[in-house]
Amino acid sequence: MRWVKKGLVYIILSIAALLIFFPILYAFLISFMTGGELLQGNIFPERFHLENYQKAFDRLPLAHYLLNSLIISLSVMLGQLVVSAMAAYAFVFIPFKGRTLLFFIFISTMMIPWEATMIPNFMTIQKLDWINTYQGLTVPFFAIAFGTFLLRQHFKTIPKELHEASEVAGLSKFRFFIKVVLPYCKTSLVTLGAYGFLTTWNMYLWPLLATNNDSVRTVQIGLKQLQTQEMATEWGVVMAGVIVVIIPTLILLFLGQKQLQKGLAQGALK
Amino acid sequence: MKTNNKLLVLFAMMALLLIVTACSNSANGEETESTEKTDTTDASSSSQDDSTDNSTGKTEAVFWHAMSGAGQESLEQIVHNFNESQDKYTITPEFQGSYEEALTKFRSVGGTNDAPAIIQTFEVGTKYMIDSGFIQPVQTFIDEEGYDVSKLEKNILNYYTVDDKLYSMPFNSSTPVMLYNKDAFKEVGLDPEKAPQTFAEIKEAAEKLTKKNGGATERYGFSILNYGWFFEELVATQGGMYVNNENGRSDNATEATFNGEEGLRVFEMINDMNKAGTYGNFGSNWDDIRAAFQTGKTAMYLDSSAGVANTIETAPFDVGVAYIPYSEEAERHGVIIGGASLWMSKGINEEKQKAAWEFMKYLQTPESQAKWHVDTGYFAINPAAYEEDLVKEKWEKYPELKVTVEQLQATKPSPATQGALISVFPESRQQVVTSMENLLQGTDPQEALDRAAKETNRVMEQAARANQ
Amino acid sequence: MKSQVELNGMLDNVVKKKKGIWQQSLNWRTALLYLLPSLILFSVFLFYPMGKTLYLSFFLTDRQGEANVFVGLENYLYLLESEAFLKSIKATILFVLYTVPTGIIISLFLALLANEKLKGIGFFRTIFASTMGISVAASSVVWLFLFHPSVGFLNKIIASLGGQGVDWLLDPKWALLSVSITTIWMNIGFTFLIILGGIQNIDEHLYESAKIDGAGYFYQLRRITIPMLSPTLFFVITVSLINAFQTFGQVDILTQGGPSESTNLIVYSIYREAFVNYQFGTASAQSIFLFLCILVVTILQFKFGEKKVHYQ
Questions:
Q1: pTM of the prediction?
Q2: CB within 8 Å: A16 and C113
Q3: CA gap C53, B397 in Å, rounded
């Protein structure tokens, strides 16, 4: 009976894994195909030629784009962690007048669709002379109400006694923040970090608006440059670009997943 | 007070973070920042005319374009050739996303020093650019220098000539053509050398070409991309106007007229075939309809002349190229040019304008045009390019390409084939697409068209009010 | 940001004055210091543009995008009776309904599966989390190809099973569903990982005592796992809702809002109004409308949702 159950779980796991991973696999296989092969709708390429990759790299400074994406995503991630943690701390541990109201104002910003603020923001960036700079692509995203909200939820689970004990022990507010609150809430910090990194990595419209040339552009724009409108798109090359673009994040994920999961699993027990 | 001390440290750290990002940026953006430097010198001393970069003594002009893929590759090579060909100017090509995205950006920098010297804008943005006040008509330079434009393709220049002034330099230009599967024609007993030419003939041929297998259609007879451009062309080739006031060329257009009889004929043809099951809908994506044709899912379709060579090359069967069809109740007038042109900014340093102008002239040389035509499939604006060996070789390989040029040259110049001028053209095109999609879902042709016309009228009216 | 000198000055003040209002407002000032970075950034990059958006929504804008003709509420009134806008709201609501519950249920299911203690489970976890590492642009391109009407893999499969191909992105009845499928797939990775983390956080003892009481798997699931998971689920639902309301990238690449505007989600509609039609006035009015929509949904969610959440 146990064996049957185990086998069944394995079968379901395998089917689910196949379904989820298939699109990635498919892109990988297509990236080796020539235009003609592609149209026949085969799944496996006749042979693994690397021409498409060569073309993708020839056409665009993909490595440079990747580096930019990495720098920008990491900066935004760090910025969000610092700014949100500070705000959340104030909301949970410092009782001040108007706290609820201010928190509500914070939360309300979560509802502002970024696209709606894009054009005025573009003009702001332009006035600051931040076009084509890393700060133009990162600083506007440092403050994120969602992060404050997430961390506040977790900070609230810190037992009152802990706070009281630390005050009795003469721990300053800042020390309490750094030494107790942050380690306690590692989980949420990891989650927020991952979230911040990914959303930044995904951005397309803003990096396009805020840059005029290749100096600080990101990979998502590169992907768009491989596709064409009126002329024929070379899908093999596009897929090669897709693979090049997703490999670094996938590797990061594979390497960091244990950490990420640990971070997510620990948390409250500490 | 320890708290606040620590807080200070944190603030300092944040400040540091900012500085670090700023520094790493300037290190990375070194090569490109020279553009900005020249810009700032312009602002302070444009009267002294020393916008030249000190180190090289060259004037740099920025060129915003929307070419991706193979087009970008070819464009960058041509720019490189220009930069090598002389030592006074440097053109820096910069990709700015789609035409819409590039134009949105231009709107906020237009008329300032941040504006690029050259910007590529799609044909439907022509009216907007003229009215924007951000641009310098190239006619100014043509007159100043006595540059001879008569050597350029007349039917292309017509589109960008308004009130006898050439506003922008034509660049990537294309027209629609009809491609058909010769093998399928033979299979069903149609003459592969004689393509159907009128709407009625198309319907008839489509009927024969459609192949059904049980409930499923294996091959449709005819398809059009759900893209407003093809509708505009099918109206124009019957001599129909898209908007009033001579297609907006004698005076600002105030009312859409594409829902008149010419437009209706187009919609009715699509509707009839759709109802009969001979019309294949492959969406609004260029690559999808091409793939459908190349895999034999549709036997005839309309494509851009820029895509012809590639389709012939990849299709596993013989491809025929023909003029776009017209209604038997009308006369054939020809086609409107599509694609994009290059605009010169106003209010930037004169030296930069000069650089831009030199580059535009360089683009029109037969060598550049030959390369451009062969690489991308867009027309050569200078017909002399067709005499270049490069082009001859290509044409020998793909004799069908000649048809695209012949169709363009056979076009009768008139406001209909000159193309409409509307400031809200992109939006109107969008509305027509929606109507085409509605039509395919069973909406009545006249009703579908009227809806698009009504929306077009509304946005035209709104734009007129907004810009009083 | 405040300069060092100013901050030092403030600190000095704190030291000197130990009593009075200054002392009483200590908490307030400390809080302000912690909140300052957020407040400054919000003001510059969210409140100011939002204010500008609100302002523009009462105007028609000229070619430079500047407010030109004051029209009062006309932009709003137009939206309310515009068929296209109503369609876009309907599509957005449907999209949220399609993606949020399904995505979370699938992720929950996968997380429960992946929580089984089996050999090689790490591999499966990695695979399930993998879509998290793929950007919207990249995954949309891949799915665009899967949905391809002529050579797409999905239709090939259907055809080989003897069925008739589906017009995934071309049929208004299917297009929104297809975009939803893509979106669910893209979101699975992140949601899965969060939920898995939440499940692993649940105290083992709870299960052990339940087992002693003889409770079955589903009883445990309903009485222990789901309630203990509620903070995580609340979080995941909030994120998914906000993301769903603000979906843009997939639509841009897969359908451009078509066919027959069936996938013209509201953010895409705003983009089109601003970038294609160059009417910031109506685009702004739509933005304000979207803002209000999300506001209402979030308030409702906090009101009814947070009550049900168990905090450990």
A1: 0.85
A2: yes
A3: 56
